[in-house]
Amino acid sequence: MTDSDAITAQLRELIARALPELDDDDPGLGPEALREQSLRAVELCLTMRSSLREVTQAAVDGARRNGASWAAIGQILGSSRQAAQQMYGSAGVDAAPSAVDAAPVVRTLYPVTAFDEMGKLAKLGADGWHAIRVGLQSHELVQDTRPWEHVRVLQGGRKSTRLPIEGWTEVPGGTFPWVYFTRPVPSGPRDSARR
Fold it and tell me: By C-alpha distance, which of 113, 111, 109, 73 is closest to 90?
């Protein structure tokens, strides 16, 4: 059993202990009770995700204080150096002064589908939100002062190899067959070919 398997087993056990045991054979037990317990499980998972974010932030802060590069941290997190720094950079931890006074607020766009995600990203991008990670039916976003644009292309396609040359940054994660890219909206003349 790997460390991650052991942690997953411990988290499942924690959820099971936090929720009351329901007897499926109880004739008085209705679908409302089962639904309520399921909703409590979702709420507990959300709380655990928030706590995990705080623990991860502390671990990243410690790694930075001990000289770890953003590239090394990003590699472990499965993201780019820039995405790791945007998500976990905090004032007072880096040796060099940071332009960011505090860790950026991360917003999760969920649920989204292949049919509506690009429209939602376009609206949020106009307000400075940009994706730093893509998950199953979700995008994690951070905000800055510039408007951002997003594009979704097929993995392995010509566009996916051309976009980085044009200043697009690949967003870590993604779901097959898609790859996502983001960039600040260029201030000069717009590309004639819209994506």
Answer: 73
Co-location of 20 and 83 in the same domain: yes
The verdict on residue 131 lying in a domain is yes
**Beta carbons of 149 and 182 less than 8 angstroms apart:** yes
Q: Which two tokens stand for residue 4?
A: 């991650």
Distance separating alpha carbons of residues 7 and 9, to the nearest angstrom: 5
CB atoms within 10 A of CB 94: 15
Domain with 149 in it: 107-184
Residue 130 lies in a domain: yes
Whether the upstream peptide bond of residue 177 has omega within 30° of 0, thus cis, is yes
Q: What is the C-alpha to C-alpha distance for residues 29 and 17, in angstroms, rounded to an integer?
A: 20
Residue type, 71: A
| pLDDT average per 10 residues of sequence, the chain (195 residues) | 75 71 62 79 78 84 88 88 82 46 74 92 94 90 92 90 91 87 81 47
The answer to whether the beta carbons of residues 112 and 138 sit under 8 Å apart is yes
Q: How many domains does the chain have?
A: 2
- Domain membership flag for residue 96: no
Q: Are 57 and 88 in contact (CB under 8 A)?
A: yes
pTM: 0.48
